[in-house]
Design brief:
Blueprint lengths: L5 H15 L2 H7 L7 H14 L17 H14 L6 H14 L2 H13 L4 E4 L15 E5 L2 E8 L10 E7 L10 E7 L5 E7 L5 E14 L10 H16 L2 H17 L12 H31 L5 H24 L8 H5 L15 H8 L9 H12 L3
Parallel strand pairs: 1-4
Antiparallel strand pairs: 2-3, 3-7, 4-5, 6-7
Helix pairs in contact: 1-4, 4-8, 5-6, 5-7, 7-10, 8-9, 8-10, 9-10, 10-12, 10-13
């Protein structure tokens, strides 16, 4: 096995970013999940054309074959540069489920379009009464000839209003124990009976939705794996989702931004925030936690390379990663002070004709902090993840 030239690889990544991350794309990237599909597709297609769209996929399915270090170099460089996220629902979530458990026909139909970004996906897991207790879900799929007839509701469905397909957990055996009666079904969002209603979240943006299924007929060929085995596939997917929620490189970018802000903002006593021992001590403490998180992330990625799945360490990564992120976002609001009070979504989206009342770094401070509160809930709440660690890692 040849050892990659990491210095050259790093230079290649920087060259790619310089050529493809235009100022308008960098600005659009700050919207996160709220980015327009056109802008999201533009960045996705540039990465795909470069051959770098699926670093964690096996090479036989379109993966890069990168080493652990190459993956870290790439993810850190794009995050630090403020590049748009590659929407995770296809590449990071349903894609691995498909190539691990899907039929040859399902792989041929879906994997190429996930890779090139021409088809967008969303995740149909949570329901109004089934969030972290996902096994209590009630959306039902009843077999009728060659179809399943689906009835029920999903909620907090990110990007449902932009997506072409949704991967869903549905109950196919109401008499079985909760985890044993669930199946994993792929549904075309244009199917009659699928209705999407928007949810405007606490950050003032629309990226969440409710999805209703009313007698939706779904071909049985869209079932992943075996009927009533969906919980197995769901756990596999959630482990990959939790590993990605940590956002280590994004938090590094926040630390760098806070160091710059601390030099620019006043502390109220004639100096700057950089002179405030209390503020800088909290930032330093969080940065130490971030460095530990980076080491844990390396372990999780190594587990993926060795076993194909992140393992139970993904729960630790998710807990610490979201805590670090939320602390940094709160520090940013504290740092910009009164400039964070004018909460204007038109300014955040770049749709206002009026200038911001303060510096650019203050415009989305409150919005980002507000939405960041959800990161310790989605993907399985941090409280649930502590139970996972207690049982699976500590044996309690």
């Amino acid at each position: 096995m040849n050892t990659p030239d990491l210095a050259k690889f790093s230079s290649d990544v920087q060259d790619f970013i310089a050529k493809n991350l235009t100022p308008d794309l960098a600005k659009a990237a700050s919207l996160g999940f709220g980015i327009s599909r056109a802008d999201g597709e533009r960045w996705h297609k540039a990465v795909y054309k470069q051959g770098w769209i699926a670093p964690d996929w096996p090479t036989e399915h379109g993966g890069t074959g990168w080493s652990l270090r190459q993956k870290q170099i790439y993810s850190n460089a794009t995050a630090l540069a403020g590049a748009p996220m590659i929407m995770p629902f296809g590449i990071d979530m349903v894609g691995p489920v498909l190539y691990s458990f899907g039929s040859n026909e399902q792989k041929a139909q879906h994997l190429p379009k996930i890779l090139d970004g021409s088809v967008w996906w969303c995740q149909g897991y949570s329901e109004p009464g089934s969030g972290s207790d996902l096994a209590s879900l009630k959306t039902a799929a009843v077999r009728d000839g060659d179809d399943y007839v689906v009835n029920g509701q999903k909620i907090w469905t990110t990007n449902a209003h932009k997506a072409d397909w949704i991967f869903t957990l549905v109950r196919t055996d109401a008499e079985a124990k909760p985890q044993r009666g669930i199946s994993f079904l792929l549904i075309d969002m244009q199917t009659p009976g699928v209705e999407v209603k928007p949810i405007v979240s606490i950050d003032g943006m629309h990226h969440l939705n409710q999805v209703f299924f009313s007698d939706v007929r779904v071909p049985a060929a869209n079932l992943i794996g075996e009927e009533n085995m969906g919980w197995t596939y769901a756990k596999f997917l959630l482990a990959n989702e939790r590993a990605g929620i940590a956002n280590v490189a994004h938090s590094e970018r926040l630390v760098k931004a806070l160091l710059d802000i601390s030099q620019a903002e006043q502390d109220g006593f004639g100096g700057t925030l950089a002179d405030s021992s209390a503020f800088m001590a909290e930032l330093a403490t969080t940065e130490v936690q971030l460095q530990a998180l980076k080491a844990l992330e390396a372990r999780v990625i190594a587990s993926v390379e060795e076993t194909g799945a992140p393992g139970d360490e993904a729960s630790m990564l998710k807990i610490v990663g979201t805590q670090v992120q939320q602390t940094l976002e709160s520090l940013r609001v504290e740092a910009v002070g009164n400039y964070s009070l004018p909460f204007d979504t038109d300014l955040i989206r770049g749709e206002s004709n009026l200038p911001a009342p303060g510096p650019d770094y203050a415009v989305s401070a409150v919005s980002d902090m507000n939405f960041g509160r959800a990161s310790s809930i989605y993907g399985g709440s941090n409280e649930i993840q502590r139970n996972v660690i207690a049982k699976a890692v500590l044996g309690l």
